[in-house]
Amino acid sequence: MMGRPTGTGALGRRALLxxxxxxxxxxxxxxxxxxxxxxxxxxxxxxxxxxxxxxVWTYGDIYTKISKKFVDDxxxxxxxxxxxxxxxxxxxxxxxxGGETVDVSQSSPFSFPNFITxxxxxxxxxxxxxxxxxxxxxxxxxxxxxxxxxxxxLPYFSTVWxxxxxxxxxxxxxxxxxxxxxxxxxxxxxxxxxxxCDYPIQWVAGVGLEQLPGTWYQLTWNRGGVFFDKAGxxxxxxxxxxxxxxxxxxxxxxxxxxxxxxxxVQFTTSAKAFCxxxxxxxxxxxxxxxxxxxxxAQSPIAGKVKVIGSPGDGKTIGATSVYFLCxxxxxxxxxxxxxxxxGGRTKDGAYTQANxxxxxxxxGSGYASVMKSAAITEGWKPWGEPxxxxxxxxxxxxxxxxxxxxxKPWHFPWSDRINIEVQKALxxxxxxxxxxxxxxxxxxEVQKS
Amino acid sequence: MxxxxxxxxxxxxxxxxxxxxxxxxxxxxxxxxxxxxxxELSPGKLGVVMNLPTLAVLALVLAYPIGYAxxxxxxxxxxxxxxxxxxxxxxxxxxxxxxxDPLFLLALKNTLVFTAVTVVVELALAIAIAxxxxxxxxxxxxxxxxxxxxxxxxxxxxxxxxxxxxxNFDFGFLNRLLFSAxxxxxxxxxxxxxxxxxxxxxxxxxxxxxxxxxLLVHAALQGINLExxxxxxxDGAGAFRRFRHITLPLLVPILVVILVLRTSFAFVVxxxxxxxxxxxxxxxxxxxxxxxxxRSFAPPFDVGIGAASAYILALIIGALALAYVTIIYRRIE
Lengths: 449, 333
Description:
The complex is a heterodimer of chains A (about 450) and B (about 325).
Chain A: H1 13-38, E1 52-57, H2 62-74, E2 78-83, H3 88-97, E3 104-107, H4 112-117, E4 121-122, H5 130-136, H6 139-145, E5 146-147, E6 150-151, E7 154-166, H7 167-173, H8 181-193, E8 201-202, H9 211-222, H10 241-254, H11 267-274, E9 281-286, H12 290-293, E10 305-308, E11 316-326, H13 332-343, H14 352-361, H15 368-371, H16 374-377, H17 386-393, E12 396-398, H18 411-426, H19 432-448
Parallel strand pairs in A: 1-2, 1-3, 8-9, 11-12
Antiparallel strand pairs in A: 3-11, 4-11, 5-6, 7-9, 7-10, 7-11
Helix pairs in contact in A: 9-10, 18-19
Chain B: H1 13-24, H2 43-73, H3 79-84, H4 93-99, H5 102-133, H6 140-147, H7 150-153, H8 156-166, H9 173-180, H10 197-222, H11 226-234, H12 239-267, H13 271-277, H14 288-297, H15 303-332
Helix pairs in contact in B: 2-15, 4-15, 5-10, 5-12, 5-14, 8-13, 10-12, 10-13, 12-15, 14-15
């Protein structure tokens, strides 16, 4: 029996059907893969979980909103453990030590190296979509989230350190925003002498990882100094810019130009205290305090507080906090999904949380695309001047560049010493030289321990 | 004795006294019927058996944690080790580190000052207030008796926050009150000044814990026989002499109890420090428990160091309690 003609150019019906089916299947597979690679945040993990959880510090009602969105999108309930900023490391670490499950948590840049050292943080490299996030990171985000070449977290928010001034008192005193530190002192002395206000400056110098140390970092960096050089050698010795800066800072206390509450206030309490309208200047700190000071619902001087950059070339510092995937998670795929809701994209591909934080809380983002978006340029307008703040933003470095001990696990206990010794110096118990000498000695102690 | 008394006789003091007298004089006591096959426990053994449940509970909730903390104090313990459950031994390393840490020594010094001030002031105030509210002829003493207890119901951390507001430099009630009374011309930075911060902490602490001491003294005062005062008055003793020679000596046992308890509690003051000063300004209000807390629960979360420092503190408190009891009771005897 002769078979059907199967010449080279001919294709039988059965063969045609087979190859078409195969081609379609292949196309479908490829298509699916391509789709998945494009929008990994939209894919449901293959595993199942009955719930997820995160451990964070409090910030308005942002977590209620994003948790609800997660549940609506994926059906998995989310439990939140929320504490105050200062209590967060303690809460998180006790849960971790106690063997509890924690899927996602967050960290300030100052605690992050310690969390990593304790084995609490899971690297994100290789997870679907991780590379795309990296490509959209701002420089500050890279500095915090990338550790030894590994992606260890996604950005929560970014900030820049700015000065604030109260326009009513400035107008009464007929001052222009200061351009040098000498001019600042002159203005404060005059305002005090004229009885315009008792304490012209309010510093954010309360005990904390960022508050008091951050103010010293910022003032030092603006004057051209660093705390550690690239090789990790401290720069606090005699004649150093950090030491001289501290002497100048102490002077503001000695001359009683400083609101005594300065040594107690944290960022939010400082903003609330400034709302009383009894200080002219509020020392450098996170830009987002304006969302309290210029909010008519919270402040009697709303709309009358403006930002200025720092003297000289305007150099300042900034920081980025991160969310991270906990090594104590219940399911890595789902924890990654939740992590993206907090620090990345939601199912629709939008940076929902970052956009909300900009519009609701005046926070900056660790993503370049968000920083250029209307969420920032329009979203910040109710409280301040976005252009002015972004102009200052462009002159900022990540704080770790001028104080690279931040990348070390011993930075945290050393910060404790900074808080103690600098407060002693600011209250006249020791001199700036004694303070710096003690801090130099403390570096070795904390490194050893 | 009570086991041998008929149910119908229970509560009859005369009968009991008679039985006791009979027993002491060697008289015959009706014997309890012997049970077959089961010997009755001796009073000593019965006491041990009756105490066993309490001992077991105490061992579980007190001895085990205390023993475990001792174990931790000789090891390197961070959250990572706690999670793994493996603790490398460091011998006496933690204790050596603490005892060579100037901050711990300063915290101990601050604790001693804090304790001395609060205990002395509390004792004096407790006696004075208890004497005042014990005046039955003054009807307001009943109201005062109730009001004096209120601070004891305030949670310590809430108490700290209340006083934090009171001490506020600009808007605090205390400065406003003193200013209105013409006692100060400029506000005082109570908790921001290293010279006043530690003493500023003692006030809210005393305010919160004083009612406990008042209650004990007040209860002890009720137990003093009024006839003693009447007799002393007849002999011409004035109020001060009655207090000096009757009230005070009879209060000594309860004062020792207060001394021991208040000293141990003041040594572990924490909540007021947390809520009001957080150890600041500088290290002006670092106390021993704050040190243990910071070492254990702030990075690098060195629980071993925290446990060792807590142990040193416990030893000091134990020694002080022992000294109080030994010295004062010896004087009483």
